[in-house]
Design a protein that fits this description.
Helix content is about 35%, strand content about 30%. By secondary structure, the chain is of the alpha+beta class. A hairpin with a 6-residue loop joins strand 13 and strand 14. The structure holds flavin-adenine dinucleotide (FAD) and 3,4-dihydroxybenzoic acid (DHB).
């Protein structure tokens, strides 16, 4: 087998790259370790920057997103039992964000790929990458795939990263995780709520006018079974409490899972004909919703660079790919770290630490400059 571009992983990064290359007339083969149902139902992110929406529209993958996505013009910060609205268009010169679940992006891109694109092989696990040959296993049989370029879009637990010799890794763990739930209940808010409280962080997000997505900061190694539904709703109630009249609507919880938090960057994101994109190269803690958006920004940059190579023969954009991505990645790493440490309560947190957090939150509420800094990073830098 041969593909001009071999893509490992059918998450949002691998699928969007395959779509963009297809539109540019460049053939690819996508290998995905899991089955189709698994990748289409893995609950993850939901907040899309304008640039992410634009990229999906530009490649013809935004039909359902444009019908079902929820445009948000800001977020709400809660602390000290008060609520503060950040108006993104006013603070950023007109930018907004959109709520549309990663599961739905993956479903849309898988359907397009199967209908119009090159091969997308499920239950095909890449096991090694050499100079111009990839080995994968399908139905228990080892197969070889030759390529001009290979792109590791295989997430944090993939194999591609290890094929970059001498890479430098930067990482940080956090002493807390998120318990995430999906609930069949209309959202109790119009905008996402990020809540700082003495009991820890909570986030109210949504998936549709009838489905809410909520998160609670919990200790690492928390077992979701220790959190029966009533305990989750009571804790959310306590963390979102404000002096104004506001009520959190409860409903049946349909999914529960615990996600650890990590910051991680590997440099460089390229070695010869191998490129890394998305979670294969970098992880951010989810506060601020940058993970999915970074993955999309990487493949937009890479698709452009590959197209430039195939149309002009110039390697210039391929050569600057890693540095161009890492600039954006490190900005998002800082922002995600900032949002995480601003809003969560560390196990060893002192009253001094809490005062610093509250001082910064008040600064954001009171200063247009501080609010604009948060809004620009959240809505996405150009
Ligand atoms: P992935 O989506 O991880 O896709 C990688 C794909 O590669 C997978 O389908 C995997 O099965 C496949 N693969 C792996 N190894 C191989 C192999 N050897 N051979 C073939 N295929 C392979 N971000 C946010 O912004 N907000 C959130 O709330 C949020 N929640 C998250 C919750 C969880 C549990 C996780 C893990 C991530 C979360 N993220 C969140 C991050 C966001 O979902 C990721 O940044 C995004 O999925 C990255 O896309 P990707 O395509 O790079 O990687
Ligand atoms: C969602 C997740 C996030 O991490 C975030 O900051 C905002 C929204 C979500 O899953 O909807």
């Amino acid at each position: 087998m041969f593909a001009t571009v071999a893509i490992v992983g059918a998450g949002p990064a691998g699928l969007l790259l395959a779509r963009m290359l297809h539109n540019a007339g460049i053939d690819s083969i996508v290998l995905e370790h899991r089955d189709r149902a698994y990748v289409e139902h893995r609950q993850r992110a939901g907040m899309l920057e304008q640039g992410t929406v634009d990229a999906l529209r530009a490649c013809g993958a935004a039909g359902r997103l444009d019908r079902e996505g929820l445009v948000h013009h800001g977020i709400e910060l809660r602390f000290d039992r008060q609520s503060h609205h950040l108006d993104f268009p006013a603070l950023t010169g007109g930018r907004s964000v959109m709520i549309y679940a990663q599961t739905e992006i993956v479903k849309d891109l898988v359907a397009l790929q199967l209908a119009e694109g090159g091969p997308l092989l499920f239950e095909a696990e890449a096991i090694s990458i050499e100079d111009d040959m990839l080995t994968f296993v399908r139905d228990g049989v080892e197969e070889k795939l030759g390529f001009d370029f290979v792109v590791g879009c295989d997430g944090f637990h993939g194999i591609s990263r290890a094929a970059i010799p001498g890479a430098r890794v930067y990482e940080r763990d956090y002493p807390y995780s998120w318990l995430g739930i999906l609930a069949d209940v209309p959202p109790s808010c119009e905008e996402l709520i990020y809540a700082h409280s003495d009991r820890g962080f909570a986030l109210h997000s949504m998936r549709s006018p009838t489905v809410s997505r909520l998160y609670l900061q919990v200790p690492n190694d928390t077992d979701p079974d220790d959190w029966p539904d009533d305990r989750i709703w009571d804790e959310l109630d306590a963390r979102f409490a404000i002096d104004a009249d506001w009520k959190l609507m409860r409903g049946p919880i349909t999914q529960k899972s615990v996600t650890p938090m990590r910051s991680f960057v590997t440099e460089p994101m390229r070695h010869g004909r191998l490129f890394l994109a998305g979670d294969a190269a970098h992880i951010v803690p989810p506060t601020g919703a940058k993970g999915l958006n970074l993955a999309i920004a990487d493949v937009v940059t890479l698709a452009r660079a590959l197209q430039h190579w195939f149309t002009t023969g110039s390697p210039d954009l391929l050569n600057t790919y890693s540095d161009a991505c890492l600039r954006r990645v490190w900005r998002a790493e800082h922002f995600s770290y900032f949002m995480t440490t601003l809003l969560h309560r560390a196990p060893d947190q002192t009253p001094f630490d809490t005062r610093l957090q509250l001082s910064q939150l008040h600064r954001i509420a009171d200063s247009r400059h501080a609010a604009a800094e948060l809004a620009e990073n959240y809505a996405g830098l150009p």
